Amino acid sequence: MIHGSTGLEVPEAKAEKIAAAHLAGMGVKQICRAFNTSHHTVVALIRNRPELLERAREITAKNWKTLAALGTAELFERVPDMKSHELTIMSAVATEKSELLSGGATQRVEHVMAPAADSWQDFVSGLRSANVVDVVVEPVGTDTAAAQKAAALPSPIVEIETGPTEEPA
User: Fold this and answer.
1) What's the Cα-to-Cα distance from 48 to each of 10, 14, 53, 56, 119, rounded to whole Å?
2) Sign, Cα dihedral of 44, 49, 50, 55
3) What is the mean pLDDT of the chain?
4) What is the mean pLDDT of residues 12-21?
5) Interior CA angle at 42 toward 38 and 48, to 5°?
């Protein structure tokens, strides 16, 4: 029901003429003027008749394709004069619409699942029982920049003497 109208109150002969006009591609405003009918009645009539609704969808799809073609042609003419931010937006929209029209992905959906409560409990208890390595933290001297730099450098390599090695016979 559209604003109190279902379109079913229109006499069948008039409804068929409205349907024929709609199927021929006449716009709703033109139909209203031609048949002295309210906008709400015409829209309700179209919505409540499956064959008319399907035609309305086809007309809408063709109109959007026409607008897309006209807009694309206009964009091609304007590309040389576009600023960077305009080009960025235009490129992003064009890429998305291109993917949509070719059946490609137009969005990314991630499903993130938290571990079950018992799995999480096992994980946490495993952390508690793990061997913990104690690390002694010593602050770097704040006396001079040279002391800080020296403290940040790795210590020199110390060679460790090993005993004599025997060659295998």
Assistant:
1) 12, 15, 7, 12, 54
2) negative
3) 74
4) 84
5) 140
